[in-house]
């Protein structure tokens, strides 16, 4: 009996002790490791622990994942360890490639087909009329109208017709070859091949040649400066470009693009700066660098704006304080016809024009503007633009020009 009571008491005590122990270890936060702080995970086999990030990459799961899954972290499979990701350095920007343009000599020969296509109305039309069996008064009037329509000018057209009429009557020629030779001789005479057409780009001792490029906005003036730089570099010249068109920010950017292609530095200032000071700085840079030629792009001006034309004269005077100006090239759009001729007259009064750069000659059937502008101003056409390509500016050659007009397509 006494043993039974003792055994029951011991059993009860044992149950109480066991229950207490169970309650103690069952409480949360007791007997278990503290929860990891946010952003940390257990580094156990098969996982990669990352600190300070919110990304955990499971190597075992990554090994069995679809091979096409897009991931930025490489994990090692089969070993339970991770491979460190090495950042790829950014590729260095490629250096600007400096181009080597073709020389100026022979460019018009290469472009004559383009010129012949655009001016076939003038040349071929005249040949067709002159080769007719009956050259009566009406036929000669039609020949004169064709010349005037091509912007040859009334005075030049009348003179050409009178000379041709006399020669045809005296010689009695009718064959196409004979008529072509007569017409070729007459057109060449009107172009005056003896005029000096060389653009003066040779340096004078330690002083570079200075070229001012003037013209109305829209004629292709800034583009002509860039293409002229390519011609000069192709001929072995070292060139500095001056962005004196400070009224138009895009002009300086455009000129800088042209210069970077051929390694020609560009002197520029902020928009609205004094154009004369920019031109002066460009010449000073050319002298200090020992270059051969400085080409200055001036602001495009309406020929009807007296103040702007006066400022153009100021640019020339300021430049001449340290160096003479070798060329003043007037850029004219061949498609503008008589309006272009009026522009030329006003510019010639403001500055002494030494040569004409006639652009867009491939885009017009009015190639006779070459004859008229030379007759009116007594200034030779020195450069012609025959396309939109970077190397479509060519030195003007009267014989090549006339031969292109009279080429049979």
TrEMBL record:
<keyword id="KW-1003">Cell membrane</keyword>
<dbReference type="InterPro" id="IPR003593">
    <property type="entry name" value="AAA+_ATPase"/>
</dbReference>
<keyword id="KW-0378">Hydrolase</keyword>
<keyword id="KW-0675">Receptor</keyword>
<feature type="region of interest" description="Disordered">
    <location>
        <begin position="31"/>
        <end position="104"/>
    </location>
</feature>
<feature type="binding site">
    <location>
        <begin position="297"/>
        <end position="301"/>
    </location>
    <ligand>
        <name>GTP</name>
    </ligand>
</feature>
<dbReference type="InterPro" id="IPR000897">
    <property type="entry name" value="SRP54_GTPase_dom"/>
</dbReference>
<keyword id="KW-0472">Membrane</keyword>
<comment type="similarity">
    <text>Belongs to the GTP-binding SRP family. FtsY subfamily.</text>
</comment>
<dbReference type="InterPro" id="IPR027417">
    <property type="entry name" value="P-loop_NTPase"/>
</dbReference>
<feature type="compositionally biased region" description="Low complexity">
    <location>
        <begin position="41"/>
        <end position="66"/>
    </location>
</feature>
<dbReference type="Pfam" id="PF00448">
    <property type="entry name" value="SRP54"/>
</dbReference>
<dbReference type="Pfam" id="PF02881">
    <property type="entry name" value="SRP54_N"/>
</dbReference>
<feature type="compositionally biased region" description="Low complexity">
    <location>
        <begin position="74"/>
        <end position="99"/>
    </location>
</feature>
<feature type="binding site">
    <location>
        <begin position="359"/>
        <end position="362"/>
    </location>
    <ligand>
        <name>GTP</name>
    </ligand>
</feature>
<comment type="subunit">
    <text>Part of the signal recognition particle protein translocation system, which is composed of SRP and FtsY.</text>
</comment>
<keyword id="KW-0342">GTP-binding</keyword>
<dbReference type="InterPro" id="IPR042101">
    <property type="entry name" value="SRP54_N_sf"/>
</dbReference>
<dbReference type="InterPro" id="IPR004390">
    <property type="entry name" value="SR_rcpt_FtsY"/>
</dbReference>
<feature type="domain" description="SRP54-type proteins GTP-binding">
    <location>
        <begin position="380"/>
        <end position="393"/>
    </location>
</feature>
<feature type="binding site">
    <location>
        <begin position="215"/>
        <end position="222"/>
    </location>
    <ligand>
        <name>GTP</name>
    </ligand>
</feature>
<dbReference type="InterPro" id="IPR036225">
    <property type="entry name" value="SRP/SRP_N"/>
</dbReference>
<dbReference type="InterPro" id="IPR013822">
    <property type="entry name" value="Signal_recog_particl_SRP54_hlx"/>
</dbReference>
<keyword id="KW-0963">Cytoplasm</keyword>
<keyword id="KW-0547">Nucleotide-binding</keyword>
<comment type="function">
    <text>Involved in targeting and insertion of nascent membrane proteins into the cytoplasmic membrane. Acts as a receptor for the complex formed by the signal recognition particle (SRP) and the ribosome-nascent chain (RNC).</text>
</comment>
<protein>
    <recommendedName>
        <fullName>Signal recognition particle receptor FtsY</fullName>
        <ecNumber>3.6.5.4</ecNumber>
    </recommendedName>
</protein>
